[in-house]
Design goal:
about 240 residues, alpha/beta, Rossmann fold, 5-stranded mixed β-barrel, 8 helices, about 30% strand, globular
């Protein structure tokens, strides 16, 4: 079964030399998989595309940044995030960084603001397959502290730290859901962070999530609204 595949099994299946196993994995949560794969892979040098039998993985590459081995993958939702994190966890990658966009829920958060996830609530589905019965998973504390201390953003973009809720179904979100998540202490909602954190916990990977606010659904904003005045901040 796939769960039982070892590091050696995966290295063979991917035709990946052991020395190319990266130190870090960066995931970007998006529905536009190929677009972001092209943009992010261009930031790396010495890039190799990760291919697999039966096209199990797509939009995944390994390269170098500043001399450090880095893998990148475009993912959408908990299942995809868990698969890629699982793969690199088995291979021995020690750090995973979840990036992408989120919907803000706390007051005073606007488009383009940065959310540093201190923890993730497990509404994604995939996390329960790795950590049954666990409702919330923490980020690695010293990474959160380091990012909070060193992040400098251009005005008026602001950084916010707090727990995020990971949902499984974007279009199923309603006003009552958003308000409940907010009342439970969550500052934003995404679709991947809980799954990424859960798999990272199983494989002993350090983990952090850095998410850009796209809108604030609790303030009545949503993805179908055309708000060109926010496009620059979102970029």
């Amino acid at each position: 079964m796939l769960k039982d595949l070892t590091r050696a099994d995966w290295l063979t299946a991917l035709a990946l030399p052991p020395e190319r196993v990266p130190a870090a994995l960066v995931l970007y949560g998006t529905r536009n998989l190929k677009h972001h794969y092209v943009a992010h892979s261009a930031l790396l040098t010495d890039v190799i595309e990760v291919t697999s039998p039966n096209a199990l993985f797509e939009d995944v590459c390994i390269g170098r940044m500043g001399g450090i081995g880095v893998a990148y993958a475009s993912v959408y939702g908990g299942p995809m995030a868990s698969q890629i994190t699982h793969l690199f966890g088995v291979l021995g990658t020690s750090l995973v960084v979840q990036t992408g966009t989120c919907g803000a829920m706390a007051d005073g958060m606007g488009a383009g603001d940065l959310v540093i996830a201190t923890a993730a609530g497990c509404g994604d589905g995939a996390s329960a397959c790795y950590l049954p019965g666990i409702d919330r998973i923490d980020a690695t504390p010293d990474l959160v502290a380091q990012i909070r201390e060193t992040t400098v953003l251009p005005t008026p973009i602001r950084a916010h730290a707090g727990p995020v809720w990971s949902t499984a179904a974007l279009l199923a979100e309603g006003r009552e859901d958003i308000e409940r998540w907010y009342q439970n202490g969550y500052v934003a909602v995404d679709m991947e962070t809980a799954a990424t954190f859960a798999v990272a916990e199983v494989f002993g990977m350090r983990r952090i999530a850095l998410l850009s606010v796209f809108d604030n659904p609790r303030a009545g904003e949503h993805l179908l609204l055309t708000e060109t005045h926010k496009d620059e901040a979102r970029a």
